Amino acid sequence: ETGVTQSPTHLIKTRGQQVTLRCSSQSGHNTVSWYQQALGQGPQFIFQYYREEENGRGNFPPRFSGLQFPNYSSELNVNALELDDSALYLCASSLPGGVTGELFFGEGSRLTVL
Amino acid sequence: AQRVTQPEKLLSVFKGAPVELKCNYSYSGSPELFWYVQYSRQRLQLLLRHISRESIKGFTADLNKGETSFHLKKPFAQEEDSAMYYCALSGRPDYKLSFGAGTTVTVRA
C-alpha cells in the first residue's frame, strides 16, 4: 500500500510568483485535504476535495486554489505569493467520506518565499 | 467557530514518570477529538480518537464535555514517547480538523 506522497519536498519562490504543489493520495482514499503549517504552529486547514469537488474551505484567500483529479491526486496552487505564505504545506488523504476522521499525511512541501 | 488550545509548548519528564498533555477546545456542537503525534523524522499520524475509547501505546484520553477538555495521559513515560503531540477537533459532518499548536514532549532517561 502506497502512502501519501507530495512533491516537491522543498522549493523557493519570490514574492508575487505562483506555485503548484502536488499530492498523490493513499490507495483507496478519495478525500484529500490540504493544510498549511507555519513554523511553531499546528496545521491549519486550507480546503478539502472529495470526488473532484471542493468540500469545504478554511480561512484562506481565493489566491489559494486547488484541484482534484479522477485518480484522486490533487494540486494546491497559490498565486501572488506573499512572504507569510512561507510554510510547510501538508496533504492528507482519508477514507471515503472521511468517516473515521483519520487523516493520512504526507511529509509535506516546504515553501520559502523571499 | 472551533478552537483548540494546548497551553504547554514544551513538556519534559523522566522515564517512568507520568505524563499529561493538556488540551482544551471550544466548539458549539458535538465535536470529535483526536490526538496526532509526530515522531522525529516521521510524518504526522493519528495516535488516538475519543470515540474509540482505546489505549494506544499506553496513552489514554478522556473527553470531558463539562470542562471542554481532552487531556492525553500516560502513567509511565518511555523514551520512545518523545515527540510532538497535536490535539485536534473535528466538527460534524465535514471532518475537517482544527489543530492546536502542539506540545513537544521530551522523555529523559
Structural commentary:
The complex is a heterodimer of chains A (114) and B (109). Chain A has strands spanning 5-7, 10-13, 19-24, 31-37, 44-50, 53-57, 64-68, 74-78, 87-94, 104-105, 109-113. In chain A, strands 2, 4, 5, 6, 9, 10 and 11 form a seven-stranded mixed sheet that branches. Chain A starts with a strand and ends with a strand. In chain A, 0% of the residues lie in helices and 50% in strands. Chain B is an all-beta fold. Chain B has strands at residues 3-5, 10-14, 19-21, 24-26, 32-38, 45-49, 60-64, 69-74, 83-90, 97-99, 103-108. In chain B, strand 9 (83-90) and strand 10 (97-99) form a beta hairpin. The model of chain B has no long low-confidence stretch (mean pLDDT 93). Chain A binds chain B through residues 3-4, 33, 35, 40-45, 48, 55-56, 58, 90, 94, 98-108, and chain B through 4, 6, 32, 34, 36, 43-46, 49, 51, 86, 88, 90, 94-102.
Shape of chain B: globular
Share of helix among residues of chain B?
A: under 10%
Cα separation of the termini of chain A? 37 Å
State the helix count of chain B: 0
Q: Element order, helices and strands of chain A?
A: EEEEEEEEEEE
* Rg on CA atoms of chain B, Å: 13 Å
- Helical fraction of chain A equals under 10%
Largest chain interface and its two residue counts?
Answer: A-B, 27 and 23 residues
Please mark out the parts of chain B with pLDDT under 50 across 5 or more consecutive residues, or reply none.
none
E-strand count of chain A:
11
Q: Kindly, what is the distance between the CA atoms of the first and last residues of chain B, rounded to a whole number of angstroms? A: 41 Å
Kindly name the structural category of chain A. Answer: mainly beta
The dominant shape of chain A is globular
Oligomer: heterodimer
Cα radius of gyration of chain A in angstroms: 13 Å
